[in-house]
Amino acid sequence: AGGWTHSATGAKPNGTNAYADTHLVPSVVVASINDYSFGIYLRDNLDGNYVDMGVVSGNHNIMYTRVGGLTYFSFGASGYASYVTSDSRGLFTCVSRLSTTQIGFNGITKKLETTDYAVSKGLASSSFYLGARNNGAGSLYSPREISFAFVGQGFTDLEMTLLYSINQTYQNKL
Questions:
Q1: Which ranges of the chain would DSSP assign to H, the alpha helix?
Q2: How much is the mean pLDDT over the chain?
Q3: Which tens digits make up the pLDDT trace of 20-39?
Q4: CA nearest to 61, candidates 52, 71, 74, 50
Q5: Who contacts 36 (Cβ-Cβ below 8 Å, separation ≥6)?
Q6: What is the DSSP letter of 118?
Q7: Residue 53 bridge partners (DSSP)
């Protein structure tokens, strides 16, 4: 929906009304909150209150990449984990492992591993949007170019290294 610019390197939402409905509903496509991840590769370095990927429907499964120098993510009904981010370009991944652990990666660097918000972890019951937050309608629209996104099983640290390597090869060929 809204205005998008497509190029050989990705798709760029207009930042005012554009989003893409993935039709991927975490509570349907993910087997367990304890083995879950989502991530996105961004090509623009912009700091602002934008959601590049997310859904708020009962539970928050969402990522705010670089808002006031921080990246926020959530796997639950309340609370956001966050870490310092100086650049919004690259691969950002959120991983939920076991019943207590949430991890934020920037590239292959583990920026945060926390159990602070484990009590409220849960799967959202509506679909992920790219370029905005799905809270029943689009909001917090992003103007950042997206070249890769995924929703799926959680990754080990070794698997994150492999995903990053594959993605970097892909990005370099664009």
A1: 26-29, 157-173
A2: 90
A3: 999 999 889 888 888 889 99
A4: 74
A5: 26, 30, 75, 95, 96, 123, 152, 153, 154
A6: G
A7: 63, 130
